[in-house]
Specification:
- The complex is a heterodimer of chains A (395) and B (366).
- Chain A has helices at 2-17, 19-40, 67-77, 97-105, 119-131, 150-173, 197-227, 230-235, 241-269, 280-303, 307-323, 336-343, 346-357, 367-394; strands spanning 51-57, 87-93, 111-115, 139-145, 182-188.
- A 4-stranded mixed β-sheet of chain A has the order 2-1-3-4, sandwiched between helices.
- Helices cover 63% and strands 8% of the residues of chain A.
- With 395 residues, chain A is an alpha/beta fold.
- Chain A has 2 domains: 2-41 and 196-394, no CATH class; 51-173, abc type-2 transporter like fold.
- By secondary structure, chain B is an alpha/beta fold.
- Chain B folds into 2 domains: 2-49 and 166-363, no CATH class; 58-145, D-Maltodextrin-Binding Protein, domain 2 (3-Layer(aba) Sandwich).
- Chain B is 69% helix and 8% strand.
- Chain B has 13 helices and 5 strands.
- Chain B has a 4-stranded mixed β-sheet with strand order 2-1-3-4, with helices on both faces.
- The longest helix of chain B is centred in the middle third of the chain and has 31 residues, at 167-197.
- Chain B starts with a helix and ends with a helix.
- The chains are: A alpha/beta (395), B alpha/beta (366).
- At the A-B interface, α2, α4, α5, β4 and α6 of A face α2, α4, β4, α5 and β5 of B.
């Protein structure tokens, strides 16, 4: 027991004194978490949106109703700097239409809305004919945009929505009643009502932190010990391999535990997450995932020839595993050969399970699979490491 | 003259030494050739998957209409207008199955008196966009079933900006820009950091070797390999994603050359500022993550909050991606702007490499 305690203390303190370990274990997850929340919490929400729309008024001024002018004013009142606006409007005269198109083509604007020359008379005609019960053609307004440029596409949708509202306003103004179906919505797999991005990403960050600790605090140490024959030297001491293993692994698990608590507190008190922190299932499952990642760390440590090659292996496997775990973005419509990587990715299952246990969303994979797949990784990793170790001892 | 000849000979020797060292380094080769392709494939598929397809933004809606055929034609009209793709199902439960499995981004059931929209919680933040779409669809349905004559009709017209602009073709240049920058920064930082850690720099400091020439020879070897890697990555993306770029190879090479120089320059500067390899790699990782998230590589300026927009404007990767879209023939930019980007990247990079090379040798004095 004393041996285990000494080894535990030694490995723990050596990592806490090492600023590289502290960076990856403490600073990097917090930084990543903060950057992600800062980026995605405010992305595409009202208050952040600002499409650049050019309104080209080709209509001729004439005596009589000035519908075009009213139309322009209605659009202006919905644009910046007015409250709740989601677009900036610049109004141009008809002769500048080519310049307006050029701005959209060169990404300096998102869409061009063109009021046609006969707009005033066409509207007046339509109103009059409808009043008389005679069908009248719709007054066309053209919007020019670049369909697959996201900003342009979204701007086009926004303008269509506004025109729809103007249409509804005109129909009700002229005495028609718009039928209204009851609109409801339901979210499958919801536990928490409309989780914020912070809640959505928090379980994933906890998973990444544990995974990185497994990879970067186990593998390089092991690779270093193997390279300099420290493992062999241990054999010549009275210390049992069991004590070494328990002392070393428990120090990693202890660090992962500190990470878990630290990240939960940071997410709640700094970033305002509202996840279920006292979920015992989350805690138990987290410990299980820590065991899985520690065992993967052992595998990498046994494969790598030295700490530098651990760095190379880590950088190759880290990014794909994180992106294919649905931590930052949900995973949909992937081709089968990428889906294979998702289905064997332990990070995907642990993120899904922790999202459910933290009360964010129901797991998209069955819970038995969330245990089985990482469990298979654990067993395979333990088997591989044991075989490699016993082969090295025999040599 | 003799002095210059000897310098040139020195430089050529350094170049050939760096070349052999580089091609023998399997890790560096993997990093340069494999990682941009892996990065591009994964990110490309993940982001295109959220958009609903690799060719266009395509929201698939699992649709169940109770019994009225009138509603079916109304919904078809609405779908055409809103640019969504309905997947009609025969049973109400099938809506849940499709939404749950991710084969549809959202679901809808239409009855005589109500419309219900269904979402998948695991879609996270993207449900916000879909809920905006819900408002438009609901309004369109109400208008269609009211049968009231409308006054205004919006007619969308596409502006042609280049060849085959698809979702994936818009994502690939951004991912490629990040991947090439990553390979350049990490490659240079790792090489210089390793040289410092194993004491080679200190030893070289005692020789008459010029620091700028030494670092420049390393950079040139990284340069041709990064350039080659960018060609391979674009060709792989053409093959996998069928992007059909109308590539202007001259502009592409020009931009890649200048951008690779810039990333190698950044790698050199990071190696000068930070002493050990780990710190260099940590700092590079953070900077690259910030560059990736706070630039308009994956999302447009129009949907960013003001602070992000300002940060994105100072990120070199924003301009790199812009330039790449131009050279791949999918989004035009003014020629003066393209030239300006190249000049800044190339001279900035060169300056960082040369000055960084001198500084890195100078700092070894201590």
């Amino acid at each position: 027991m004393k041996e285990i305690w000494s080894l535990f203390k030694f490995h723990l303190l050596s990592d806490l004194r090492n600023r590289r370990s502290v960076f990856w274990v403490v600073i990097f997850p917090i930084l990543l978490f903060t950057i992600l929340v800062l980026t995605f919490s405010n992305l595409g929400v009202r208050g952040s949106l600002n499409f650049r729309i050019i309104l080209v008024n080709e209509s001729k001024m004439a005596n009589g109703p000035k519908f075009a002018e009213e139309f322009v004013n209605a659009f202006k009142s919905l644009s910046f700097p007015n409250k709740g606006a989601i677009f900036t409007l610049s109004v141009m005269k008809g002769q500048n239409i080519k310049a307006a198109f050029e701005k959209v083509i060169y990404s300096e604007a998102d869409a061009v809305l063109v009021i046609p020359k006969d707009f005033n008379s066409a509207i007046a005609r339509a109103i009059l004919l409808r009043k008389l019960g005679i069908p009248a053609p719709l007054v066309p307004i053209k919007i020019f945009y670049v369909p697959n440029r996201a900003s342009s596409n979204l701007a086009e949708g926004t303008v269509e929505g506004i025109i729809g509202k103007i249409n509804s306003y005109l129909t009700t103004k002229f005495g028609y009643t718009l039928k209204s179906l009851k609109i409801e919505s339901e979210t499958f797999g919801s536990i928490m009502k409309s989780p914020s991005y912070t809640n959505f990403v928090a379980p994933g960050i906890i998973v990444i932190a544990a995974f990185m600790t497994g990879l970067l605090l186990v593998a390089p140490k092991l690779a270093l010990m193997r390279r300099y024959g420290i493992m062999k030297k241990y054999i010549s001491t009275p210390m049992s391999p069991y004590s070494f293993f328990v002392g070393f692994v428990s120090s990693r698990l202890f660090i992962m535990l500190i990470q878990y608590i630290g990240l939960i507190l940071f997410s709640m008190f700094v970033l305002g997450a509202t996840i279920r922190i006292f979920s015992w299932q989350a805690f138990v499952y987290y410990l299980f995932s820590c065991a899985v990642y520690t065992s993967i760390g052992f595998v990498v440590g046994f494969i790598a020839s030295g700490p530098t090659s651990v760095g190379a292996i880590s950088s190759i496997i880290n990014l794909p595993l994180e992106f294919l775990a649905g931590i930052y973005f949900p995973l949909y419509n992937l081709p089968w050969y990428i889906n294979i990587l998702v289905y064997i990715n332990p990070l995907w299952y642990t993120t899904n399970a922790l999202r459910q246990f933290f009360g964010v969303a129901l797991s998209t994979t069955p819970m038995w699979l969330n245990i089985l797949v990482p469990g298979i990784w654990l067993m395979l990793s333990v088997a591989f490491s044991s075989i490699r170790r016993s082969l090295e001892v025999r040599r | 003259m003799v002095k210059y000849n000897s310098r040139l000979r020195n430089f050529l020797e350094l170049l050939s030494k760096a070349f052999y060292m580089f091609i023998r380094d399997k890790q560096a080769t993997i990093m340069i050739f494999v990682s941009p392709i892996a990065f591009m494939l994964i990110l490309g598929f993940v982001i295109a998957g959220i958009s609903g397809g690799t060719t266009s933004v395509n929201v698939k809606i699992a649709t169940y209409i109770s019994n009225s055929s009138r509603y079916t034609s109304i919904f078809n009209k609405v779908a055409k207008k809103s640019g969504i793709e309905p997947i009609f199902v025969k049973h109400r439960d099938d809506v849940k199955k499709l939404v749950d499995s991710g084969k549809a981004q959202m679901g809808i059931t239409l009855d005589a008196s109500n419309v219900t929209f269904f979402y998948n919680q695991s879609f996270g933040q993207y449900n916000n966009y879909l809920k905006d779409l819900q408002a438009f669809i609901a309004q369109d349905i109400n208008e269609e079933i009211s049968g009231i004559p409308m006054y205004l009709q919006i007619i969308p017209e596409s502006l042609k900006t280049g060849s085959s602009l698809t979702v994936i073709s818009f994502i690939v240049p951004g991912v490629l820009a990040i991947a090439i920058m990553m390979a350049g920064v990490f490659g240079m930082a790792t090489t210089l950091g390793s040289y410092r850690e194993n004491g080679s720099l200190r030893r070289l400091r005692t020789t008459p070797l010029n620091g700028s020439l030494f670092v420049f020879s390393l950079a040139l070897n990284r340069f041709w390999s990064s350039l080659l890697s960018s060609y391979v990555t674009v060709l792989v993306s053409e093959w996998i994603f069928s992007t059909n770029y109308d590539i202007n190879w001259f502009s592409f090479t020009l931009l890649m050359a200048s951008a690779v120089f810039m990333s190698l320059g950044f790698g050199t500067v990071f190696s000068v500022v930070f002493k050990d390899l780990w710190t260099i790699l940590n700092f590079s990782t953070i900077i690259l993550v910030i560059m990736m998230l706070f630039s308009n590589v994956f999302y447009p300026f129009s949907i960013m909050p003001e602070y992000m927009r300002q940060i994105a404007h100072v990120m070199p990767v924003t301009y790199f991606a812009q330039g790449l879209r131009y050279t791949l023939g999918i989004a035009p930019i003014h020629l003066w702007r393209f030239a300006f980007i190249n000049v800044i990247f190339a001279f900035g990079g060169l300056l960082m490499i040369l000055l960084g090379g001198n500084a890195i040798f100078y700092l070894e004095r201590r």
